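Following up on my earlier thread - several people asked me to post the actual chain instead of describing it. Fair enough. Here it is, all 202 residues.
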Amino acid sequence: MNILHIDCSPRPGSHSRDLSAAIVKMLLEATPGASICRRDLGTAPLPHASPDYATALSTPATLAAPPKGSLDLSEVLIQEIEAADVVVIGTPMNNLTVPSVFKAWIDQVLRAGRTFMSTPAGKVGMLQDRPVFIGIASGGVFSGERANQPDFLTPYLSVVLGSMGLKTLHFLAVQATAFLDPDQATRARNEALAAIDFTVMG
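Reply from S.P.:
Thanks for posting it. Predicted structure:
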């Protein structure tokens, strides 16, 4: 099994990093010998879309004959997804949604004619579905009875990843991290991990 492990927090030892690492550890315990492709967007951010990349994606004609090299980074990132049997993402909720480093990755992998087709009914994914585990850390509370802020992260990722064909999504959240002591954070992480269903791995 191949695991694509993506982290988005710039902070070492962050709650989202701890959560994604724990998910990967559980996957490795369930499937010894699995390989890991690491993409750390928090410590090695991707560049925002270059002028050549934006030009290539601007029309069907420019996409059919893109500037030389303009799609190279996009292709590398898409191939990392294609090579993975499972994707693990650790991300903080920044200002109610995904951090900008994660958005930069999305802008490279959500690509017309490569990961989705445009149809009159909307985007149709071109990638084969596979399990995606998304570990979220939020300083506030965005779900449940104590929710006190909106959640634009999980619906956004559901649509974006689904548009590429990735529909087997599993969201695991550690919330109110701004108010948790280390013991409480550990308990919250363990509760989130308990929701993982490995039957989705086939």
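The first strand starts at residue 2 and ends at 7. That should answer part of your original question.
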